[in-house]
Amino acid sequence: MWKFSHEEIIDAQPEVVFELISDLPNYQNWNPFVISASGPSELGGVISGKAVLGRFTSSYRHKIFEYVPNAALCWRDFGFLSLLFCGQRCRYLEARGDKTHFKCELEITGLLSGLVNLIFGNALRGGVVAEAKAIMSECEKIVALWQR
């Protein structure tokens, strides 16, 4: 098992951030890591999509296991391969005045988690950071438009 965590302070309220991260079909317009996502954004929803892992693009199916509006969105792999390795990613939001403390936690478990880290660890960590920076940028653009 291995874990990675990344945090940002976003100059937007949690409602703005949650709206962005729960609008799965819109990922293709702003997200450099998860370049497509579809499925119901709700507890138990099955999400399908594609993620960029360095030079590769990987298809995935995840199931949402925690969905708390304006506070948490978490999903994990499921299916046959999850018996060998299972990725789980949680994004947590916490209001801090007029800003949001954003935290993303990635955890890979299973018999082949070490191999996943060796082959894709840097790409996964880089993707999480790139996505967090894109969330911050996109939310701050939205807030700037509202303030005009």
Briefly summarize what is shown.
With 148 residues, the chain is an alpha+beta fold. Helices cover 32% and strands 43% of the residues.
Task: Write structural notes for this entry.
The chain has 148 residues and is an alpha+beta fold. The chain has a single domain (2-146), classed as 2-Layer Sandwich (Alpha-D-Glucose-1,6-Bisphosphate, Chain A, domain 4), CATH 3.30.530.20. 32% of the residues lie in helices and 43% in strands. It has a 7-stranded antiparallel β-sheet. A hairpin with a 7-residue loop joins strand 2 and strand 3. Helix 1 (14-22) packs across helix 3. The mean pLDDT is 96.
Write the layout of secondary structure elements.
Layout: E1 2-10, H1 14-22, H2 27-30, E2 34-38, E3 46-53, E4 56-68, E5 72-77, E6 86-96, E7 99-109, H3 113-146
Antiparallel strand pairs: 1-7, 2-3, 3-4, 4-5, 5-6, 6-7
Helix pairs in contact: 1-3
| Main β-sheet description | 7 strands, antiparallel
The chain-level structural class is alpha+beta
What characteristic shape results from the CA principal axes?
Answer: globular
Q: Estimate nothing, just give the exact number of structural domains.
A: 1
* Residue share in β-strands: 35-45%
Return the string of H and E elements: EHHEEEEEEH
Mean pLDDT: 96
Spell out the CATH superfamily: START domain
Strand order of the largest sheet: 1-7-6-5-4-3-2
Alpha carbon gap, first and last residue: 47 Å
CATH class: Alpha Beta
Q: Enumerate the spans where pLDDT stays under 50 for 5 or more consecutive residues.
A: none
Helix proportion: 25-40%
Examine the coordinates and then state which fold CATH places here, giving the name of the CATH topology. Answer: Alpha-D-Glucose-1,6-Bisphosphate, Chain A, domain 4
* Cα Rg: 15 Å
